[in-house]
Amino acid sequence: MAFGLLPLKGCQDMKLVVQRVACASVEVDGKTVGKIGKGLLVFVGVSRMDTLNDVAFLAKKTVNLRVFDDADGVMNRSVLDIGGEILAVSQFTLYGDCKKGNRPSYIEAAPPEKGRALYEEYVAQLRQLGPHVETGVFQAEMDVSLINDGPVTLILEKQGGS
C-alpha cells in the first residue's frame, strides 16, 4: 500500500466522529450487519491525503480514549478498560465541504479504493489492539441506530500526514 503522499497545506487528514454508546447497530437492506453493546460508535472519514501513519495513530487514540466513567464518576476509563466494543462505520461525508453553495463538495474525501483500504486497515488495527469490533459495509446505504450514552460525542483528527 503506497499512500504516503505529502499533505497539501491546510488539508485535513483522517477524521473520526466518536460517540460513547449504550448500544449501536447498523443495517444494510434491512439486515443487521454490525451490532454492539456498551462501547464506541466510530464514523470513519478518510481523506485523499491520509497515510498508514494516520490510521495507526487514530486506532491507538480510539481504544485509549478515556470517555467512560470510573468509580468516582470521572471520565477516566477507555473502551479497553471497560471491556467495551467498537462499531466502525465508514462515512466519506465527513469530508463534505459546505462553504460554497448548498451542495457539499467531497473533493477532499479519499477515492473509494484508497478509502476502503485505509478504513479496513483502521478496523484491523483496532482488532489487534484488543476490543471486539463490528463494522458497517463500505460504500453501502446504511441505517445506523444508537443510544448515545451521556451524550458524549468527540471528533478525532490526525493532521500533518505524519
Keywords:
two-stranded antiparallel sheet, 2 helices, alpha/beta, disordered N terminus, 162 residues, 6-stranded mixed sheet, D-tyrosyl-trna(Tyr) Deacylase, Chain: A
SSE map:
Elements: E1 15-28, E2 31-36, E3 39-45, H1 52-64, E4 68-69, E5 75-77, E6 85-90, H2 112-129, E7 132-135, E8 143-157
Parallel strand pairs: 3-6, 6-7
Antiparallel strand pairs: 1-2, 1-3, 1-8, 4-5
CATH architecture annotation: 3-Layer(bba) Sandwich
CATH class: Alpha Beta
CATH superfamily heading? D-tyrosyl-tRNA(Tyr) deacylase
Structural domains: how many: 1
Shape: globular
Helix content: 10-25%
Order of helices and strands: EEEHEEEHEE
| Gap between N and C termini | 16 Å
- How many distinct beta strands? 8
Question: Uncertain segments of ≥5 residues (pLDDT<50)?
Answer: 1-10
Please work out how many helical segments DSSP would assign: 2
Which structural category fits the helices and strands? alpha/beta
Whole-number average pLDDT? 91
Strand content: 35-45%
Major β-sheet profile = 6 strands, mixed
CATH topology: D-tyrosyl-trna(Tyr) Deacylase, Chain: A
Rg from Cα: 16 Å
